[in-house]
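Task: sequence design from structure.
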């Protein structure tokens, strides 16, 4: 029986373990915290829960257009209740995942793991000196918030994503440093809950994302009261008793009572015995992997945000599965990112997949942009700001990309992702039924428009 030992029980490790058990391997997961990982307990699931609560608060505010008068309802957010809900749901999800592993006969060991090199094969040891000889190792140790020099988090005034749910109350004025997806989503959530928010972007907000989509979200958040300071990086944060001051490189000072440093993630790839095992890292500290999640050392795989793949939960899950299938010689295909959907869960949301303006060879593409203002469902819901952009290959007509800015865009994008994966043409998408009136109608309509223009 092949002995598969996995370092880390986050999404990548969890999915790898389940596939290993299904394929008949003897599977051990060494996890130093709790099953579910940062995905479930600290980053992804907790922030989605916070966003869901923010949406409930917004729902109370945006009623007038529907003829519903709230009569000046004083809607307040109980931070203690909100945070305990976040932790309760995360804990429940982690417990469910543990149960699933247990039922699949996966051995879960609590401890900090590292790899030791044996004469003929490798083993994994824990800090308690428990040793697990392995035929195959999957490193799935995830990542942690990037700490910037001169802005060391103290959990009080200077925070990382992971400190938010321990705050005794909502901030009065939150300064968010870093305008990537996390920074923008969290800025949006706190703004919706009535917090004054300033967002510091060293360049433009949401770099790398469709500029039309970003402009729309930027204008929307600005209209709701978000202050955006862009073009200058944060240089230092100075914490005081009642607040913190952010000093930018050009000397500008921004005061708030809490500062969230949302400056990205750093791979957990040090102290794992990787260099002795001849596993190479990139300059950014990520574990180098190929499409099958193989590292540079035979028999050692890496998946999730500790690896060079994009740091996304959906990628971590699939990569964990691919790694173990490949290691156990089960049929699999390499990781393909051409139909990887991504989202920014603001209101409205941005979701996108496939090719964008920035891709080389974009001249070979045809594109249509369908404003949501004409969509019946968007009008009914009073959320008609946004658009559906569909991109196809000029000659073949195959769908190669899409951008949606709409309510629940993250749900709608799957249809375009499927079209790309199945190599459907715009004509085929245009002839697909969708329920009327819905926003997914818009995808079909965009395809019809693109078809008529080709
Ligand atoms: C605020 C925020 C929101 C996000 N929201 C989304 C989202 O909505 N959608 C999305 O797709 N992605 C999202 N992401 C990204 C996503 O959370 C990560 O890419 C994903 O969680 C990575 O999963 P993973 O399994 O690689 O790592 P993790 O879930 O971090 O799991 C790694 C595990 O390894 C354990 N570990 C580490 N070192 C050791 C060791 N030496 N021994 C034993 N165990 C160890 C850790 O304790 C942890 O449990 C978000 C990220 C952030 C910061
Ligand atoms: N909805 C989702 O799918 C979702 C949500 C959140 C995060 N994520 C993923 O998690 C990962 C981490 O996201 P993230 O937004 O934390 O990281 P990120 O690396 O995408 O963004 C961090 C931002 O901080 C900026 N920054 C760094 N130093 C700065 C400084 N001194 N001053 C001002 N700005 C500074 C960077 O330029 C960058 O734009 C990403 O892979 C992201 O895709 C996904």
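Answer:
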């Amino acid at each position: 029986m092949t002995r598969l030992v996995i370092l880390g029980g986050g999404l990548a490790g969890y999915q790898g373990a389940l596939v290993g058990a299904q394929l008949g391997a003897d599977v051990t997961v060494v996890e130093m915290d709790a099953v579910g990982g940062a995905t479930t307990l600290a980053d992804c699931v907790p922030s989605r829960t916070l966003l869901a609560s923010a949406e409930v608060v917004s729902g109370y505010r945006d009623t007038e257009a529907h003829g519903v008068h709230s009569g000046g309802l004083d809607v307040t957010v109980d931070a203690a209740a909100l945070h305990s809900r976040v932790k309760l749901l995360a804990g429940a999800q982690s417990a469910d995942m543990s149960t699933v592993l247990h039922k699949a006969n996966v051995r879960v060991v609590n401890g900090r793991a590292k790899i030791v090199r044996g004469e003929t094969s490798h083993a994994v040891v824990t800090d308690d000196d428990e040793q697990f000889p392995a035929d195959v190792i999957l490193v799935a140790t995830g990542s942690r918030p990037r700490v910037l020099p001169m802005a060391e988090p103290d959990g009080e005034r200077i925070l990382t994503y992971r400190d938010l749910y321990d705050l005794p109350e909502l901030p009065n004025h939150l300064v968010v440093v870093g305008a990537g997806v996390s920074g923008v989503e969290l800025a949006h959530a706190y703004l919706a809950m009535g917090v004054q928010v300033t967002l510091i972007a060293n360049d433009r907000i949401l770099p790398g994302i469709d500029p039309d989509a970003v402009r729309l979200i930027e204008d929307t958040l600005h209209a709701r009261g978000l202050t955006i300071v862009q073009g200058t990086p944060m240089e230092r944060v100075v914490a005081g008793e009642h607040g913190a001051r952010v000093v930018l490189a050009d000397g500008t000072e921004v005061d708030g009572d809490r500062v969230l440093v949302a400056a990205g993630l750093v791979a957990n790839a040090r102290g794992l015995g990787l260099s002795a095992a001849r596993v190479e890292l990139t300059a950014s500290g990520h574990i180098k992997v190929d499409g099958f999640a193989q590292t540079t050392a035979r028999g050692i795989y890496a998946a999730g945000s500790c690896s060079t793949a994009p740091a996304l939960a959906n990628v971590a899950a699939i990569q964990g599965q691919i790694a173990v299938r490949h290691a156990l010689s089960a049929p699999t295909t390499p990781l393909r990112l051409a139909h990887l959907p991504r989202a920014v869960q603001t209101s409205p949301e941005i979701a996108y997949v496939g090719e964008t303006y920035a891709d080389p060879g974009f001249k070979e593409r045809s594109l249509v942009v369908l404003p949501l203002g004409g969509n019946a469902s968007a009008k009914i819901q009073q959320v008609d700001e946004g658009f559906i952009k569909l991109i196809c290959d000029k000659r073949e007509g195959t769908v190669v990309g899409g951008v949606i800015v709409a309510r629940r865009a993250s749900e709608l994008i799957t249809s375009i992702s499927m079209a790309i994966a199945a190599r459907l043409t715009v004509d085929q998408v245009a002839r697909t039924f969708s329920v009327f009136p819905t926003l997914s109608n818009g995808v079909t309509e965009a395809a019809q428009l693109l078809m008529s223009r080709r």
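The CA atoms of residues 412 and 440 lie 6 Å apart.
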